[in-house]
Amino acid sequence: MLADSKALGDNGTTSNGAFSPDWIPAFKQAIDGLILIAGDSHLTVIEKLAEVKLVFSVGAHNAAIHEVTRIIGDTRPGNEKGHEHFGFLDGISQPAVQGVDTSPNPGQETVPQGTILLGRQGDVVTTRPSWALDGSFLAFRYLFQLVPEFDKFTKENPIPGLPAGQGSDLLGARLVGRWKSGAPVDLSPIKDDPTLGRESSRNNNFSYSFPDDSQTQDRCPFAAHTRKTNPRADLPAGATTPHRIIRRGLQFGPEVSAAEIAAQKTIYGRGLLFAAYQSSLAQGFQFIQKSKFSFSHENDFGSLINNRVGWANNTGFPINKPIAPGFDAIIGQAPDAGPRTLSGTNPNSQSTELALNADWVVPKGGEYFFSPSIPALKGTFAVSS
Description:
The protein is of the alpha+beta class. The chain contains nine helices and twelve strands.
């Protein structure tokens, strides 16, 4: 991912033709593997980590691996559990995998196994090594979130005509595409509906297919984060399928402090450990994030406008809209840290562009990995005892 960081839009500097992203040093060196450990408490995780280190003799003269860095995640407290640090319920829209998820929720897209797993029907590569079967490519991102700055922006740019606080909440919801409860703005465009947000049978059952959705931003801006990264009916049936990913996010860092609230500025690092699984990085994570020129026109829906493909960083996506959508305000990145704008945040003035004064999600590292299946780990990669 280090070599891919400029194409992803990460900020950095170029010296003698070589680009260096503004990442922490640990992610600027070779990282050959990633071990993810989850548990019901920090103590459980520490115990499991000790077992793993013992297996690989970490720290000993005969160590099989050495630790490059360690990042500790945390579940957020109380009612914020399951919500990322900006406050929005996370992880709602996941694809169902055919033959695995047998009871998908209403509105949940079912994708072929090969969209996520190598060697299965739908995998874009037809020939894989036998040990790759049912493995998946993992894109890992170390993402910092500037929460006080995001909150300050929404307070200073409320949707006009609403009482104090409501206009700011509506702006945040229209930037994300969901209210903090998880309720989609396409179904609840004016005010939050926490009951809708909680109900998995309803909170993903929409497709930007109301009669006015395709050509107006009355209900949801074209560039809302959820719409940019999963455009649903904005593309022809089946067009999103190759680009679906299964993702998981774990929060890290402390809750926003009183000092940060008062200063409206981040003092302590916090954010999201982001993991995305797919059978093709180019069709999955990279496609969702990037904006790049393409002249292949091979099954490339984004090439219908200006030969440019990709979603979050592509200001012309979703395609075929009467107004340029602009950047994904949450993860969209402009080349060379340039200005970012998007249209449609104000439903009563949809052609007006809103200038985004900062990148509130800041990548500080990441890498691409291959995640083998359990049979491959046991039968191919494990050392015989």
